[in-house]
Amino acid sequence: MTQPIEMSLPGRISVVIPVYGPGKCLTELIRRADAACQAVGADPIQFVLVDDNGPGDAWTEICRLAAARKEILGIQLMRNFGQHNAIMCGFKYCSGDIIITMDDDLQHAPESLPALIAALLMQNADLVYGNYDSKKHAAGRNLGSAVINWFFRLVFRTPVTLTSFRCMRRELVQAVLRYDLNFTFIDGLLAWNTSRIGSVIVPHSARHDGRSGYTLRKLIVLAMNMFTNFSLLPLQMVSLLGLLAAGGGLFLGFWYLIAAIMNWLVVPGYASTIVAVLVLGGLQLLSLGVIGEYIGRLHLNVNRKPQYVVRASTDRTGPVEVQ
């Protein structure tokens, strides 16, 4: 059982939950989160539930919950825009001074919310990650997460371990909301805007419903989003490969010149030609692919591919705003 944590809360708490699937765990998640935060004297939590158009009819469940309680705001997106874009949508509509992101499948224990908030306040941090004592993901998901974390540490030069269980101050969220382009990587945007990042150990549970929407392929694509949005490292690596290929070509040419003078070549030409064509052709295609990735993203951003589009909202105080 989670022990009570004494702290002075700076204001309201908002919990942003991207929903991908039927949303069967939402009722229990909200009940347990309420109980955990009431135990430390928090005001009623605002829940922002963003339906990211996954399999199942999550929107019906979200509307039912929102109708029963005014602190619950439901937002339905017009198609599946991805978890990070759905979180950006939730950021825009939340109103808390402390904002928490968590998954909808109860793998993040709601009882850990006070521990995250306490760590944010005691560490004087702008952002705190809930790091797991032991992961209950499948092997492929763990491999993909390891790739993401390795890339993140390489790009941002920080030892942080990323998770989707985050607690942050409103000022940081306001800074992140300035980004309105499509290729969104939340953790990169957060790291761009603050160096006050902490962590706290939290339990991790097995999924209560369905399967994770993150396949290994999607995690690798997310890693590519991070590289191409926040770093020139791929272009620098291509430049280095080009330099090495040019240096190797000059060295090989010099060696063949010596070999020809010394009459060492028995069957001249074939092997060196094939090796040169394969190596240089592969490097050229790799270089064009990396450059094309950057140009393609620029093209889509110039054409204003939407970060997300809202279809409906349970907020009855005004019209839905389309992004």
Count of individual helical segments: 10
Mean pLDDT: 81
Order of SSEs, N→C? EHEHEHEHEHEHHEHHHE
End-to-end distance: 42 Å
Strand content: 5-15%
Contiguous low-pLDDT stretches (5 residues minimum) are 317-323
Biggest sheet, open or closed, and with what strands and sense? Answer: 8 strands, mixed
Number of strands: 8
- Radius of gyration of CA atoms, rounded to a whole number: 25 Å
Trace the largest sheet across and list its strands. 7-5-6-4-1-2-3-8
Described by the principal axes of the CA atoms, the overall outline is elongated
Based on helices, strands and strand pairing, what is the structural class?
alpha/beta
Q: What is the helix fraction of residues, given as a range?
A: 40-55%
What report would you give on this structure?
- It is a single chain.
- The protein is 48% helix and 13% strand.
- The protein is an alpha/beta fold.
- It has an 8-stranded mixed β-sheet, sandwiched between helices.
- Strand 1, helix 1 and strand 2 form a beta-alpha-beta unit.
- Helix 5 packs parallel to helix 8, helix 6 packs across helix 7 and helix 9 packs antiparallel against helix 10.
- The longest helix is centred in the C-terminal third of the chain and has 33 residues.
- The C terminus is likely disordered.
